[in-house]
């Protein structure tokens, strides 16, 4: 009986360690990871964009985390995540580059999530130091980038919201069944 209890304890320990080490969200597609910030360490994170400009993810005064882009010593704030120290300790932030419209100018994607809950995805057009937010979405764990479309799952039944990027803006995709007749 002691051996059985020991084996069960070891299995539960391994399972809980695996769950803690698992990523909170995953980007599926060809986006390039630029910087990662993890609230457990509270260390600032830096990254370099394809343009040579810098991404900075920094904690300030233990009340917030700020994602900035820096060009020629000029800093522009992309995202501010404010909250208690307890919330920030459980937050993960990742910044990616991805060219949604294949125009050669990569958009910036900032993904953040406190614990294992809703993931927020914010998309910015960025060119020559100019920043414009073009998308703000929420979903769950897996985020799929497919050419000029982003899919964000929700629920446990394989459903997702899709957003199509065109002319500098995102449009929500709606499923239409041409065989279904409306009244």
Could you characterize the architecture of this molecule?
A five-stranded mixed β-sheet has the order 1-11-12-13-14, with no helix packed on it. It has a five-stranded antiparallel β-sheet with strand order 2-7-8-9-10. The chain has a four-stranded antiparallel β-sheet with strand order 3-4-5-6, with no helix packed on it. It has helices at residues 2-21, 85-89, and strands at 26-28, 32-38, 45-48, 54-60, 64-71, 74-82, 91-98, 107-114, 119-127, 130-139, 142-146, 149-154, 159-166, 169-172. The termini are far apart. Strand 8 and strand 9 (119-127) form a beta hairpin. The chain has two helices and 14 strands. With 183 residues, it is mainly beta. Helix content is 14%, strand content 52%.
């Amino acid at each position: 009986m002691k051996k059985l209890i020991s084996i069960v304890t070891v299995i539960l320990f391994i399972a809980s360690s695996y769950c803690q080490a698992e990523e909170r969200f995953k980007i599926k597609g060809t986006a390039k990871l630029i910087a990662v910030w993890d609230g457990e360490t509270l260390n600032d994170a830096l990254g370099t964009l394809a343009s040579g400009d810098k991404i900075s993810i920094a904690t300030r005064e233990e009340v917030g985390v700020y994602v900035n882009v820096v060009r020629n010593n000029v800093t522009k704030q992309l995202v501010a995540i404010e909250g208690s120290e307890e919330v920030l300790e459980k937050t993960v932030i990742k910044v990616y580059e991805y060219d949604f419209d294949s125009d050669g100018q990569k958009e910036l994607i900032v993904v953040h999530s406190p614990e294992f809950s809703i993931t927020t995805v914010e998309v910015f057009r960025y060119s020559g130091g100019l920043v414009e937010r073009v998308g703000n979405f929420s979903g769950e764990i897996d985020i799929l980038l497919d050419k000029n479309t982003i899919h964000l799952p929700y629920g446990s039944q394989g459903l997702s919201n899709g957003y199509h990027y065109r002319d500098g803006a995102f449009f929500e995709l709606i499923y239409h069944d041409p065989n279904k007749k409306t009244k």
